[in-house]
Amino acid sequence: MKSVRYIILAALTMLAVSMQAKDNAANWEKYGPTSKSTNAGFIVRAGYVIGGTTPLPPPAEIRKVKEFAPKGGFNVGVDGYKMFSRRWGIASGLHFFYQGFHTVAEVKGYYMRMEMEGDAIEGYYTGCDVTNATFWGFTVPLVATFAMSARWNLSFGPYIQFYTSTGFNGEVYENDEGVSYLRVDTPTGQKQEIGRGTNSYDFADVDGENKMRQWGAGLEVTFDWKALKHMNVFGTLDWGLTNAMYPDFKAVQFPMYNLYATIGLAYRY
Amino acid sequence: MNFKSVSILGAASLLFAACAEEPANMECDVESIWIHVDQPTSLFAPERVADTLKAEVSTSPEGRYITWFVKNTARPESYPVFLTKTDGATVFIYGADGVKRPFFNGEVVDFSGEKKTVIEVISEDRAWSKQYELSMVNQPMSSPEFSFDFNAEHEFFQYSKTKTGVGYYKFSPMDPRAVASLFYNPDDPYWKNGNPGFAMSRGTNSTPDMYPTTVGFGEGPDGSNCALLQTVSTGGLGAMARIYIAAGSLFNGEFDPAKALKSRSAARLATQFGTPIDRKPLSMTVDLKYMPGPHYWDEDKHVLPAIEDEPDAYVVFFRNDVPGGLLDGTNVLTSPNIIGKARLKHRYNADGSNQETGSPIHGVTTEWQTFKLELEYTSEPDPAVLKNMGYSMVIGFSSSWQGADFRGALGSKFYIDNIVIEMQKDERDGVINNN
């Protein structure tokens, strides 16, 4: 993690330097709002999405993330903005997205509940857990935007998301040591071995019922860098503050939060 | 462009945040335990010296008793005990003075006079513990005849420590001769069946009468209780292991529910048939009644319309001290170690495989009838090996004769009552045998 810290530090330094460099009136003019009369405009965005749906912080029962791969994902949308001063304004819009991930994690003594057609077994699981999650939907942000410089813009504010389709499925099976079992109800309970293919789960279809929330809300932060007069490079982080699952759904003991970042290009009209 | 790396790394570092410190183990099992005896044959017959080791005592939820069965004539003394346990757990032993002190491998434990010694395993996180009682018991004397009438042989067993009221009936033999001959393990003096596995798959949704093996209250031939075996659905959790039916079963031996829901191949190994015995079985007399379920399923739930489900009842006698000696769901009726067998009649193909048909010949009907199944022997037991418990006997019943291969008809009901097992008499009974 040390190297990560250095990279972040270096990035921030370069950011500050580049902000200082060309902060002059010509730049404010060139990269300012497209419509000088209204101080407003539109930004069309398209980006690549990476992230996950995770308990925060990850519980100690998750011993090792063996595999992680983003699924999809993309985010396209349009934002309207209105600047009230040279530096301050607000923005809102509509972003369609497809986001998801695939992960393989080793867990130890992880309390879980398997439920199928009304039959249930629960207890402490040790083994390997594979998860695949997907979300289709759209986001409506309402953010304050702050021009840190002529070319750098920071937006921050709440968002609300609606999902048109959700998926959260996976299975548990033997870890590298061949271990995969549940201790029923308590750590001294009956040992129940669980083999590959024998415990797949689908939280979007638990006896025909979707246990995933069809909406979410959280905070959004976006950095825009105005690379050209009409072209931005941007990065957005959507940090979910609502549990992605219904809280009464006992299969997941921890609240799960959507945490997805988008990197992309934007066109400013 | 650097902010991109910032936000990506920011998100990534949150997602992969170095996992928190490994939590301490919560389990507290003895995984295997063994005694060191300089001369194993002083305690165990040559055929049974492997009995010094008890493996995998962890899978039973209680695991309260660890009993070494020794020869009838043996006089146990003090022996060093060794064990393996859950990582991080600590083991304590209660001394003769009742004081708890740490246990170290090689600790000498006094087993004389059937003394019992308690050890306690405490989990690494110190929140959980389990006690085991160690003892050494002389193998009881078997009887030339014993019986089971199921009138009062059941007790309700709650399998979950946290959910009250969920459980099933266990059958404990009442005839002391049967206990001495086949059910002598004080930890587990019960008929075995698939109920512990069914409890895992459907336990939270089932009353005891819905289990594959249950009590036929007042349904015996004389109006008293009998055993009722029924072929039932394993529900959603069973289906995930592609196991759709559970046939009711009744046998002596071991059932390891840890494997029952894992997969088909593992489930066949969950059943370990037989108990060592020092007499040769001759016959089983039993009252039977059977109603096949309407639709016969193959292992993938396809209905086989022209086939009728059949019950099974058998006694198997086999050599237990040779490699592959134990019988499981794959070979209980076919192992080459079997020397004697009695079984309800079924049709077989020319190659000896089971023939599932629409015209069974077992003769069990919807009315009670008494059947006498006599064992046929391919070779005579070796008297010396027999004396040393080198043979085991299985008494087995199933509500679907292909149930071990997950084939059968939901709703098949097999009623069983008044089992009488006749064993060969010998010099202990004042009888001299010529063979």
Radius of gyration of chain B: 25 Å
Count of individual helical segments of chain A: 2
The CATH topology name of chain A reads Porin
The CATH superfamily title of the largest domain in chain B: BT2081, beta-jelly-roll domain
Oligomer classification? heterodimer
Number of domains of chain B: 2
Q: How much of the polypeptide of chain B forms β-strand, as a percent range? A: 25-35%
Number of helices of chain B: 6
Structure description:
The complex is a heterodimer of chains A (269) and B (435). Chain A is mainly β. Chain A is built from 2 helices and 11 strands, in the order H-H-E-E-E-E-E-E-E-E-E-E-E. In chain A, a hairpin with a 4-residue loop joins strand 9 (215-226) and strand 10 (231-240). The mean pLDDT of chain A is 85. Chain B has 2 domains: 30-138, Immunoglobulin-like (Sandwich); 145-429, BT2081, beta-jelly-roll domain (Jelly Rolls, Sandwich). Chain B is built from 6 helices and 30 strands. In chain B, strands 10, 13, 14, 21, 26 and 30 form a 6-stranded antiparallel sheet that branches. In chain B, strands 17, 20, 23, 25, 27 and 28 form a 6-stranded antiparallel sheet that branches. Chain B is globular. The interface between A and B is large, with 64 and 63 residues.
Features:
heterodimer, A: Porin, eight-stranded antiparallel barrel, elongated, B: 435 residues, mainly beta, Immunoglobulin-like, Jelly Rolls, six-stranded antiparallel beta sheet, globular
Topology readout:
The complex is a heterodimer of chains A (269) and B (435).
Chain A: H1 2-21, H2 25-31, E1 40-54, E2 62-83, E3 88-116, E4 119-147, E5 152-173, E6 181-184, E7 191-193, E8 200-202, E9 215-226, E10 231-240, E11 257-268
Antiparallel strand pairs in A: 1-2, 1-11, 2-3, 3-4, 4-5, 4-6, 5-8, 5-9, 6-7, 9-10, 10-11
Chain B: H1 2-15, E1 30-35, E2 53-55, E3 65-70, E4 78-85, E5 90-94, E6 100-102, E7 107-110, E8 117-122, E9 129-138, E10 145-148, E11 154-158, E12 167-171, H2 176-181, H3 195-202, E13 213-216, E14 226-230, E15 232-233, H4 235-240, E16 245-246, E17 249-251, E18 253-255, H5 264-270, E19 271-273, E20 275-277, E21 281-291, E22 296-297, E23 312-319, E24 327-328, E25 338-343, E26 369-374, E27 376-377, H6 383-387, E28 391-398, E29 408-409, E30 413-423
Parallel strand pairs in B: 3-9
Antiparallel strand pairs in B: 1-2, 1-4, 4-7, 5-6, 5-8, 8-9, 10-30, 11-12, 13-14, 14-30, 15-16, 17-28, 18-19, 19-24, 20-28, 21-26, 21-30, 22-29, 23-25, 23-28, 25-27
